[in-house]
Amino acid sequence: MTGPEASAACGDLYSAYRQFCEEAGRKAKCSSEFGKQAKALDGVRKTRPSRQGSRTWVYEGIGLARGVAAQNARRRSREEVASG
């Protein structure tokens, strides 16, 4: 989704893009190329706001649908548990 109120953590947006590419049988671009193309979209910018005591890189002007965002959060939690 896009718009002035939309936002997503850069890592979450890139993860969703990679998952989409995998499911579609396409080769995903590297994260730096993905970032360049995302920032080239009208109304999208990369910022690092302070949220809940931490500073995470965020794309503003583009976001994830709620179901996709929740899926990413669950996957991140499983990866954190597995790694440590």
CATH topology assignment: Arc Repressor Mutant, subunit A
CATH architecture: Orthogonal Bundle
Number of helices: 3
- Listing every helix as H and every strand as E from the N terminus to the C terminus, the arrangement reads EHHEEEEH
Level-1 CATH class name: Mainly Alpha
Main beta sheet strand tally, sense and closure: 3 strands, antiparallel
Shape: globular
The count of domains is: 1
Distance between the termini: 33 Å
Uncertain stretches of 5 or more adjacent residues? none
Beta-strand content estimate: 15-25%
Looking across the biggest beta sheet, what order are the strands in?
A: 1-5-2
Q: CATH superfamily assignment? A: Winged helix-like DNA-binding domain superfamily/Winged helix DNA-binding domain
- Share of helical residues: 40-55%
Average per-residue pLDDT, rounded, comes to: 86
